[in-house]
Amino acid sequence: MLRIESINKAFGGLQAITQLSLEVNEGEIVSVIGPNGAGKTTLFNLITGVYRPDSGRILFEGRQISGLKPNRIVDIGIARTFQNLRLFNNLTVLQNVLIAQHHRLRTFWPASVLRTPGYLRQERRMHEVALEKLAFFGPRLMSFRLEQPVEVLSYANRRRTEMARAMATGARLLLLDEPSAGMNPSETAEITDIIRRMRDEGGYTIMLVEHKMNLVKDISDRVVVLDYGRKIAEGSYEDVVSEPAVIEAYLGKRATAEGAQIAELGAEL
Amino acid sequence: MVGAPSFGPRGVMLRRLLNAAAAVALVVVLFLVQSSGSVKLGQVFALFAIWGIATVSLNLINGVTGILSLGHHGFMLIGGYVTGLLMLPEAARQNLQFSARNSLSDFALGLSVERWMEGLGLDFLATPETLGVRFVVALVLGGLLAAAFGLVVGFPSLRLRGDYLAVVTFAFGEVIRLLASTPLLASYTNGALGFAGVPSGFGKSVWWTFGALAITVFVLARLKKGSYGRVLQGIREDEVAAEAMGVNVAYHKVLAFVISAFFAGVAGGLWVSWVGTARLDLFLFTLTFYFLVAISVGGTGSITGALIGTALVVWVRQYGDPLEQAYPLSTWLAAAGVVLFVAGVLGWLYRRGRRMRPAAHPLVIGAAAVGALAALLAWAGVFDAALAARWQGFGMRAIALSVLLVAIMIFKPAGIMGRREFEWTWLLRDKRDVPSDEERAQDAWLRVGERAGTAAEPRGVEE
Amino acid sequence: MSVHAAPRGSSTGRPGALRRAAPWLGLAALLGLVVWRMYYLHGVNENFNAAFFAGAAVRSVQLGSLYALIALGYTMVYGIIRLINFAHGEVFMVGAFAAYFLFSATPFAWPVAVVVAAVVAYGFLRFLGFFRVLGRPVVLGAAAVCFVAVAVALASVRFGWLGAMVASMFLTGVLGMAIDRVAYKPLRGAPRNSMLITAIAVSFFLQNFGLLAFSNRQTPFRPPSFFTGQLTFQVGGETVFATWMIVLVPVVTLALVVVLTSLVTRTRLGRAMRATSQDAETARMMGVDVDRVIASTFLLGSILAAAAAVMWGMSFGSINQPAIFGILPGIKAFAAAVIGGIGSLPGAVIGGVLLGFLENFLTALFPRVGSFTGITEYKDTFAFLAMILILLLRPSGIVGEDLSEKV
Fold it and tell me: Is the Cβ of A144 closer than 8 Å to some Cβ of chain B?
């Protein structure tokens, strides 16, 4: 579904991504892990069009998307959430999720002023879709929450709203940037479940950046490890976690030299 | 619609009924104003409507989309001059053509809706009775040309950040006015002289102006409530997130400029009609300043707020003359004393409201005391001899408005209304924001601590 | 704010020699075109001779220096708090009127003299505070002496242009600090749009307050001075008629710029200013009194604006009414700052001088000839058009400091 072919990206003198190639198949859940600064968010930015790769190509369903503007890429079928949350703070939960659907509106602005039947039909549909996506999270974001500005919501609820918003765009591939950041273990378990349901029931393909290894282990079909902008390992969670290069990336050279002890630690993470 | 504050299934009907009742009430008021015989009152109402159109359209860019635009007077200039030129009566055109002080080209003088109608064979639309139809045509054309310039000004908005963009829009407004007096455009504007004789029956008429205002408010309110309005607000909140959610930010920003400029052009046309003359000094930056005050005080992002602010600004402009007369210095001292005293009282109230301690800050008490003392002494005539010289209050209105603006920016930047619009639900107390049962259930854990100070147990994911 | 031009090119290596030489080659080409145009005009009409162009050039430098002084105020404030101080043009206006009253209405009555002297001394005190090397007792003593001297002088003597200028500089400096304290400080941390609107409000307030308090018509500005006297010199056999102001203005400007630069580069406070402009939070954590630094920036900017105002008045012989006088010079100086590179001190000077040349020399290069009416009527739009062009093509300005934020 998504194919990244040898992309490179540099910012001034800093090479953020080097010769990165990656594939994500439909229906997969792929996790991207790596130490801080490895380029994971940069990778997301490249896929979603915020940055343009210096070289290489990114293809989505066979179609070249590298170099397109972010809003075009959403039209094509990729949406994301943000590491540090970027909601429309003063707008309500419902408005946040409705805005994500605007790009599929087929009428021009006069129709919204005149409230033509075509426009009203689309509005109704957008509301239905919004409620449908918000319902993924149970009653938490429903009823009275719909009309509350997102800035009064709890942190976890805001993360959920952002995910619902990304789903509402109608994208088929979702890039989730640290979806469980700031959540406690039970909330994390719940999010793990929801992400799985998103794939199973919603039919989404999901790529996520995560730091919580238990989440990664539970949910990923495949894990990709980045370090200093390069892919250093790829495969199932167990394979990847026992790779010496990965352990070295997380724990450093000296720790790796202490052999089996560390391998055990890695497997336990 | 789901989620809109409503009264339930009968709610929509009730809201429509209330809206209709309000409209009827407005018509009655306008009728009374019109028949009251006071010309000035009618003109004030008309000015309110005209400036209301300008403010509400400016609010679309500034408040709803969050782009600070300072060039609104430029769009009004374009619309005003186009409408004025197109509506000049034949007699005025003949006079200008043979006048020595005229720079208007023959081509420009030939631009007349009346002539076009005759040319198209629609003679019935060239009669005095159909002046109104021609005026509408002229207004729309003025608006369209202004909208075209809105397109031009909208493009820099894609590349420039907030404050730079504000300056570019300011530059646009000034450049338009400066260029209008140069030979480049004088053949269309008659340079610094402008031209008189624009039919003023429309700008001064409450019906015409309020009619235009009603249309403007209708369009912009519907726009704001619909999907496009949501998207513009999303752009205001977080442009990057909006783009990440599929919004074509560039298109929508330019759209906001174009729509806003159109209505500004219409407002300009009505403004020129109100004055009866097309003159460059009608379109100074001062105009945009008034609108900024109106928006900031009334409520950035709120149409009702913009109208409230406009009412205030128009009131100050039209009825503020007494402030700018000449009074003896002792009177000015008394006034200053009163202002100081009121400021002290307001300061005290503000501090009390914000729970700042001490509420009666020495500065606050000092200001109030000095103010009261000065006012009382001046009123008692103590200073009558020493401060008998007369001083004229030049610019007091603008001073009052600028002080108000600074105060609003410091204390309540979102304005009186903030981003809220007026809702009928406000008037029906029992339907206001009362926590529903679900909300109570979900927030129950917050109230646990109220019972004998027991610590709240973590209720799992029900936060 | 930066005192040095921003380094250009990527950090992976210096760009090629051609790339670096390109701007200078472009400049040379431009100068070539200008010289060619001058010769062409001379051929068309003998009056467009060397003296004519020399006069235009000299006036350009004069006007450009004035713009530069005002632009410095804009650029410093923007560099420190990222605010376009719309009110700076009005501060310039107040500087002119303050000086006017100082040289035309002195001697003052005792109470007035004391109050004015107090304000001047306070400004002087804050200014001296920049020079750590002087030590507190010296600074306080100097300010006290200043207060007494100025009070006595104001009450007994007619001020000359120089005294008026210096006193006005400190008066206006205090005004700048007051504006910051009252209107901008409560809004630190507010969104930029709010601050801009507040600045506009302050600008209108000052304009109308000036109308109320100073004058409501154009005012002659003719303090007796050697410098307003005529100066003639010969260029290529012809006489150029000017006043000695064409010497005074650039010289004073240069002196002030030198003082400002050494202040910013060599004093502790200057270092604090540069730190604050780069990262106010961190500066605060390093012990910098950010509020004091910001106040000082306003003080310096306003001092320069007042100097420019007095010299402006002396150059043109009159000052317009308060609601008009400061608007165009203010916004043009801001445009100059943007053109040169906002946030950069050399940028402001370069932008200012460039704008001076655009207004005076460019109009001389395209004068009224035959049926061509010349571009003098469009003079006022040059600043705006140049600014818009720069913002669209090279937003960081000529000297270029990249002030963009990371997303």
Answer: yes
Name the pTM for this structure: 0.89
Show the domain range for B350. Answer: 326-392
Q: Report the domain count for chain B.
A: 2
Is A12 in contact with C12 (Cβ distance < 8 A)? yes
SS (H, E, C) B320-362: CHHHHCEEEHHHHHHHHHHHHHHHHHHHHHHHHHCCCCCCCCH
SS (H, E, C) C246-264: HHHHHHHHHHHHHHHHHHH
pLDDT in tens, A61-97: 989 998 899 999 999 999 999 988 999 999 999 999 9
Look at residues B174, B172, B167 and name the one whose alpha carbon lies nearest to residue B151.
B172
Contacts of A268 (CB under 8 A, 6+ apart): none
CB B296 within 8 A of CB B410: no
Percentage of the residues of chain A whose pLDDT score is greater than 90: 47
Domains defined for chain C, CATH in brackets: 46-106+158-214+227-393 (1.10.3470)
Q: Supply the ipTM of this predicted assembly.
A: 0.89
Q: Is the pLDDT of residue C180 over 90?
A: yes
Q: Hey, are the CB atoms on A147 and B240 less than 8 Å from each other?
A: no
Residues of C in contact with A50 (CB under 8 A): 407
Q: In A, which residues are within 8 Å of B442 by CB distance?
A: 140
Report the residue count for chain A: 269
Compute the count of residue pairs across chains A and B with CB atoms less than 8 Å apart. 130
The shortest C-alpha distance from A118 to chain C (Å) reads 38
Which chain A residues are closer than 8 Å to C407 by Cβ?
Answer: 50
For residue B406, give the nearest of C196, C198, C208 by CB distance.
Answer: C198
- Shortest distance between the Cα of C400 and any Cα of chain A, in A, equals 17
Average pLDDT over residues B317-340: 86
Interface test with B, best of A90, A106, A116 (most B CBs within 10 A): A90
List the chains bordering chain A where 3 or more Cβ pairs fall under 8 Å.
B, C
- In this structure, of A98-102, B288-292, C175-179, C403-407, the range with the lowest mean pLDDT score is C403-407
What's the CA gap between C37 and C17, in Å, rounded? 30
Residue B219 sits in a domain of what CATH number? 1.10.3470
What's the Cα-to-Cα distance from A180 to each of A89, A149, A213, B224, B241, rounded to whole Å?
A: 20, 21, 11, 34, 19
Q: Distance from B410 to chain C by nearest Cα, in Å?
A: 6
pLDDT band at B431 (very low <50, low <70, confident <90, very high): low
- If you average pLDDT over every residue of chain A, what do you get? 88
Cα separation, C102 vs C202, in Å, equals 24
Q: Which residues of C fall within a CB distance of 8 Å from B68?
A: 193, 196-197
Percent of chain C at pLDDT exceeding 90: 51
Judged by CB atoms closer than 8 Å, whether chains meet at B410 and C186 is answered as yes
| Nearest-by-CA chain A residue for B418 | A90
Closest C-chain CA to B324: C212
pLDDT band at residue B432 using 50, 70 and 90 as cut-offs: low
User: Is B434 a domain residue?
Assistant: no
Interchain CB distance below 8 Å, B3 and A92 = yes
Interchain CB contact of A12 with C (< 8 Å) = yes
- Dist CA C277 CA C391 (whole Å): 21
* Boundary of a domain, candidates B392, B414, B448: B392
Q: Which residue of B has its CA nearest to A145?
A: B439
pLDDT at A141: 85
Q: For position A254, what pLDDT does the model report?
A: 65
Q: Catalogue all structural domains in chain A, each as residue range(s) with its CATH number.
A: 84-170 (3.40.50.300)
| Count of positions (residues) in chain C | 407
**How far apart are alpha carbons C291 and C12 in whole angstroms?**
38
pLDDT at residue C406 greater than cutoff 80: no
pLDDT category of residue B145 using cuts at 50, 70 and 90: very high
pLDDT of residue B316: 93
Please name the residue of chain A whose CA is at the shortest distance from the CA of residue C13: A13
**How confident is the model over A86-109, as a mean pLDDT?**
93
